[in-house]
Design a protein that fits this description.
Layout: H1 2-24, E1 28-33, H2 41-56, E2 60-65, H3 68-77, E3 84-85, E4 88-89, H4 93-115, E5 122-126, E6 133-137, E7 140-142, E8 145-147, E9 153-158, H5 161-168, E10 172-176, E11 178-180, E12 186-188, H6 191-201, E13 206-211, E14 229-231, H7 232-238, H8 247-258, E15 264-268, H9 274-280, E16 287-290
Helix pairs in contact: 3-4, 6-8
Length: about 290
């Protein structure tokens, strides 16, 4: 009886996924991959399985990844100090060489390799490829004033032709958040920001940002109650009071939804298969941002 009950529970879970399968079949979903989910071996494999599941379920996943922990470790090995201003990495020319090497040559290859254990799906790209991301130098804003933080860029133009071609061919683009300027300078672009801009440019149905918290807390640090959903106007009100680490993620959600993406989500990437829980269950997890 126990095994039969378990089988019935599995069937119920599959049926619960049916309306979401219908809704998102053939739709593009942009997933920002980063944080603890990138460094824990079990979570890395679970993420790759989730991406392949989405692909087989008829969705069109596009992955944009960061690599903060890997970059920190590589900079330390090269004797370069990691410093942040307003949540953005200060990127000297020496640091930029390491950032580019790690994101394009190490992290991107790792993610592509994990996904491709399940089939010939993932294709690695940098934002430099086919002029995907064109950026301009971006200062950090501290107390209302701009502060130069080196080779950190803000995306000003996106050329999505190569990504659309890969998606149409059934591939899963895996994109590192490096960009070039019109003058050939290479920039480090915040991966949350890059994912949001790409979601808008691709007319994606969802932006999903994986992070290392359960979602957006209602009154952090005095409360650990997660806000299930909120509108862009409500989020814009909260932004000035958020912790520095959450600002780029929530700004990304705000930018995506105001740019036409129907919904954006912040999920706890420490939960195995959090992607599937969000996309295919009625309750979902994390925080969802909707248009006002």
């Amino acid at each position: 009886m126990t095994s039969r009950a378990g089988a019935l529970n599995k069937a119920a879970t599959l049926i619960e996924a049916l309306p979401w399968l219908e809704r998102f079949n053939g739709r593009t979903v942009v997933i920002k991959y980063g944080g603890h989910a990138m460094t824990d071996e079990t979570l890395r494999h679970a993420f790759a399985e989730d991406i392949v599941f989405l692909r087989y379920a008829g969705l069109r996943p596009v992955v944009v990844h960061g690599g903060g922990p890997q970059i920190n470790a590589a900079l330390a090995r090269h004797g370069i100090e990691s410093t942040f201003t307003a949540g953005l990495r200060v990127t000297t020319p020496e640091a930029m060489e390491v950032v580019r090497m790690v994101l394009v040559g190490q992290v991107n290859r790792d993610v592509v390799g994990l996904i491709n254990r399940h089939g010939p799906f993932a294709v690695g790209m940098s934002g430099e490829d086919a002029n995907l991301f064109t950026a301009e130098r971006k200062p950090a804003i501290v107390d209302g004033l701009p502060v130069d933080i080196g080779q950190v860029g803000e995306i000003v133009e996106i050329e999505v032709g190569a990504v659309r071609s890969l998606v149409a061919d059934g591939r899963v683009p895996v994109i590192s958040s490096i960009a070039r300027s019109d003058h050939g300078e290479v920039y480090n672009v915040n991966a949350d920001t890059a994912a949001a801009a790409l979601a808008v440019a691709l007319d994606a149905s969802k932006l999903i940002v994986l992070t290392d918290v359960e979602g957006l807390y209602a009154d952090w640090p005095s409360s650990e109650e997660v806000i299930d959903r909120l509108t862009t106007d409500e989020l814009a009100e909260l932004l000035p009071d958020l912790s520095a680490g959450m600002v780029p993620k929530m700004e990304a959600c705000l930018h995506a939804v105001r740019g036409g993406v129907p919904q954006a989500h912040v999920l706890d990437g420490r939960v195995p298969h959090s992607l599937l829980l969000e996309v295919f269950t009625d309750q979902g997890i994390g925080t969802m941002v909707l248009p006002s």
